[in-house]
Amino acid sequence: MQDQLKKAIEILRDGGIVIFPTDTAYGIGCRLDDERAVRRLFKIRKRPITQATPVLVDSIEMAKRYLEIIPYDVEEKLIKPYWPGKLTIILDCIIVKVPSLVRGGGQTLGVRLPNHELITKIIQELGVPLLGPSANFHKETTPFKFKDLDPKLVRLADYVLEYDSNSDKTVSTVIDCSSVPWKIVRQGAVKIWLY
């Protein structure tokens, strides 16, 4: 596994595209700060350029380097109880640090700190967030196990980190906290009710 990890980090560092496991679905990603790699990732997944993509971080500190501000309420009610974990939080970001494609041309960024040692180790070594959409073509089936990956997508990536974790086949919950009241964009593994 150490060799696989080293290889994945090298490829990502050089601007490559890697398929990797997370605590939810398999993801496909590249480093956030390489616009050429970001464009290629969108093209590979056939993702509309107006659709923002989530990013994965290794810590709250890393998230804070890319977000305008994390409101006290968000930190207390969402980050502290649910990170690391299956919750993606959308907030205003520092747009000069985040390529337009990643933001879907907007001013917000969806961020998640996964509860998965392998992927957080990779992000830590890279020193920058990793784009983390699921490893499927746009609107196709989400893969939770290595065997679920579409061979056509696998061929388009530069590397696949094969490691089946105990995924419970749930996607992350996505909550937009960029304005008040907060809005649940997708109800997933973390059950949140807004009143």
Describe the structure.
It is built from seven helices and nine strands, in the order αββαβααβαβαβαβββ. The N and C termini lie far apart (about 45 Å). With about 200 residues, the protein is an alpha/beta fold. It is globular. α1 crosses α6. The strands form two sheets. It has a six-stranded mixed β-sheet, covered by helices on one side. A three-stranded mixed β-sheet has the order 2-1-7, covered by helices on one side. The protein is about 30% helix and about 15% strand. The chain has helices at about 1-15, 35-45, 60-65, 70-80, 100-105, 115-125, 150-155; strands spanning about 20, 25-30, 55, 85-90, 110, 130, 160, 175, 185.
